[in-house]
From TrEMBL:
GO annotation, biological process: amino acid transport; transmembrane transport
Record-annotated Amino acid permease/ SLC12A domain positions: 25-442
Matching Pfam families: AA_permease
Topology of this chain in the membrane: Multi-pass membrane protein
Protein name according to UniProt: Amino acid transporter
Length: 470
């Protein structure tokens, strides 16, 4: 059955979903999207490259950029709560070709991420069960996430809430125990007295100079990605005018505390060279090393379990977001009608199935180089995410100018981003710098070129096939 417009409208205003989410779900979904590979595995990489103080600056800057983008998104989402939101805003306030391309890019972000989440989770399982092949675990995890997404929206939101809670509790425990160790209130292997913060500057303030701070911004921005899920879910939220701004403020401040707190603890307790991805591969999380040294029994198993739930929860929200993007393209007649078909639970099941194929690169990684594929997929996901963020800033900038031109005032907006036009302009410029930084990382260059080709293909296909119809 093909979903007719009224079919969709009584089930939420564009995605086939009821308004089933509260602020509690929104905050947890955005925290769940953000606390994943970027924090548990990427954070060590950033510390290793920039040194402790550099990493703190990187994550702090990343948080500020994310906050500026989310303020812009908040203004748009409260004014027009739609599922598949950034695509709709870019269509209206930048141009239909850009809206189409952003929707596809956001889809690519999450389908590439699915690959990294499943691969990382499978590599972790292999440490428990060395004889079972990575691809088998990848298939098991993919099946689990697929089933979660095929159940109802409320079930999805609830499951995501609890999966995200596991991560949040772990991060809080890590920061609290780490601080106890830093101040000598808990014993820490290798230190007779409290280590305090001497490690932060042991190698000098910036052991590798200032450039790595900019070079790692992509990893850092990727760590904050997921916060914009608030915008995707805005169309399925009760009372968006009240809940969306509340969720944005709560989520960003919590993330800043979690991320910067984590970096401070890791940096104070580990020499920065030890923090990165070492010879043991993706699973050598700095979390494990710190918990082990504090003397927590089974630290490695606990953290491994937490990271696996973290990865699955990020994949869970990712599949949700990406399938909604495909649904909205189909709903606007820019993809065949089959993609907006709903099952009896109101789930766009064809879109969910097709998006799952985005996890295929993850399956290939065992045969080829897992590290290289992992880093490239991370690069692609981060780059596309930052481009989508740029479109959010530009949409809000154009929207507000149009709003004033039509004779409206700032006071009439349900939620207005402060300091216009500084916030959208700075957000846009910082994101642009981050994108350009990819060119200077030889490992990221193939991903960058691939993304550029993908963007060119999106614009070409839009102007070849759809432009004439509009």
């Amino acid at each position: 059955m093909h979903s007719s417009p009224n079919d969709a409208s009584h089930q939420g205003n564009s995605a086939p979903l009821k308004r089933a989410m509260s602020t509690r779900h929104l905050v947890m979904i955005s925290l769940g999207g953000a606390i994943g590979t970027g924090l548990f595995l990427g954070s060590g990489e950033v510390i290793a490259q920039t040194g402790p103080i550099g990493a703190i600056i990187s994550y702090f800057l990343g948080g500020i950029i994310a906050y500026m983008v989310m303020l812009c998104l908040g203004e748009l989402a409260v004014h027009m709560p739609e599922s598949g939101s950034f695509g709709a805003y870019a269509t209206r306030y930048i141009g239909p070709g850009t809206g189409y391309t952003m929707t596809w890019l956001y889809w690519l972000t999450w389908s590439a991420t699915l690959g990294t989440e499943f691969t990382a989770a499978a590599l972790l399982m292999q440490e428990w069960f060395p004889h079972v092949s990575v691809w088998l675990w990848t298939i098991i995890f993919a099946a689990f996430v697929f089933c979660m997404n095929m159940s109802s929206t409320r079930w999805f939101a609830e499951s995501e809430f609890w999966l995200a809670l596991v991560k949040v509790i772990t991060v809080i425990a890590f920061i609290v125990l780490g601080l106890l160790a830093i101040f000598g209130a808990a014993s820490y292997q290798g230190y007779e007295s409290a280590p305090l913060f001497s490690n932060l500057t042991a190698q000098g303030w910036f052991p590798h100079g200032l450039f790595p701070i900019f070079a790692t911004m992509l990893i850092v921005n990727f760590a904050f990605s997921g916060t914009e899920l608030i915008g995707v879910a805005a169309g399925e939220t009760q009372d968006p005018a009240k809940n969306v701004p509340k969720a944005i403020n709560t989520a960003i401040w919590r993330l800043l505390i979690f991320f910067v707190g984590t970096i401070v603890v890791i940096s104070a307790l580990l020499p920065h060279q030890m923090a990165g991805l070492d010879a043991e591969g993706v699973s050598s999380s700095p979390f494990v090393t710190v918990f082990n040294n504090i003397g927590i029994p089974y630290a490695e198993d606990i953290i491994r379990f937490v990271i696996i739930t973290a990865l699955l929860s990020a994949a869970n929200s990712g599949l949700f977001a990406a399938s909604r993007m495909m649904w909205s393209l189909s709903y606007k007649k820019q993809l065949p009608a089959v993609f907006s078909k709903l099952n009896h639970r109101g789930i766009p099941y064809v879109a969910v199935i097709v998006t799952m194929f985005g996890a295929v690169p993850g399956l290939l990684s065992e045969q080829f180089a897992p590290e290289t594929i992992f880093k490239n997929l991370l690069g692609i996901a981060a780059f596309t995410m930052v481009v989508v963020w740029m479109s959010i800033c530009l949409s809000q900038f154009n929207f507000r100018r149009q709003w004033y031109k039509d004779g409206h005032s700032k006071a009439e907006l349900g939620f207005a981003a402060p300091l216009f036009p500084i916030v959208p302009i700075l957000g846009f410029v910082f994101c642009l710098i981050t994108c350009i930084s990819m060119v200077f990382d030889p490992e990221m260059l193939p991903g960058f070129i691939g993304c550029m080709i993908f963007i060119a293909c999106c614009y070409a296909s839009y102007y070849t096939f759809y432009h004439t119809k509009n």
